[in-house]
Amino acid sequence: MYKIDAIDTVQILNKINENILIADEEYKIVFINDSAKQLLAQIGPYVGINDPEDFLGQNMGELHGSLKKENLSSGNFPLKASIILFNKFSADISVNHLKNGDGENNGYVLTWKDVTDFEETLEENRKQLQILDMPVIPLSVDSAVLIPVMGKLTEDRLTLLEEKISLYCGEHGNEFVIFDFTGVSHELDASIAFRLQKVVNALKLMGVQSIYVGIRPEMAKSIVLDGLRVDVPTFNSFVHGIRYVWKETGYELVKNEL
Q1: Separation of alpha carbons 101 and 201, rounded Å
Q2: Residue 64 needs a FRET pair 20 to 30 A away by CA distance; which of 10, 107, 164, 182 works?
Q3: pTM for the whole thing?
Q4: Radius of gyration of the chain (CA)
Q5: In this predicted model, what pLDDT tens digit does every residue of 8-34 receive, in sequence order?
């Protein structure tokens, strides 16, 4: 019968296409396979370690940041978690006990999977949220679109909105944009109101008329107290706003006779 010795074990671990690290009972890294070394060669410089071998002897609890010793000593193995490495990279990890021939615990084996740049992941998530933020919704009247505005308005959101709605109206030839502020319950800062007016002015230059609907008491109060002018038609609900568009475009809602 073929017996696997220590040398064979190392060769096997190096042949596995997974990032594998082994720690002793004191949580110190004692082995890193070739796949993990290649990964550490890329991410190590971010923490001032250029040689992957220098990670040997490091405490794996410190290495994994959010992975606490109490988690390791809980006895709930295998332990799986999504963590942040070196405060920069996100990874899915798995930790399990190693046992000797007598069944006693004598260390830990770790695997890292899906290691990605955390900042890049966050940026990608931000981009996806921007795509979903304040969508442009076509209406039954071809010349009009609806922009549901929700949450706290910021300079960044309004800049994105201006780019999005200007591009959309330019491509589709829209004449009316209904901004629905029903989802905005906070007071409107003067600088944000001024930035919103710039969006309206940009649309006006394109021949697009803006309409405000659903302005709530808190927002209306702040506009009045700051002495701000609202140079667009305003209505208390979307229904009244779309009726205004119908009137301006010659549409009429007629009930079908059954």
Answers
A1: 78
A2: 10
A3: 0.52
A4: 30
A5: 788 888 888 888 999 888 888 999 999
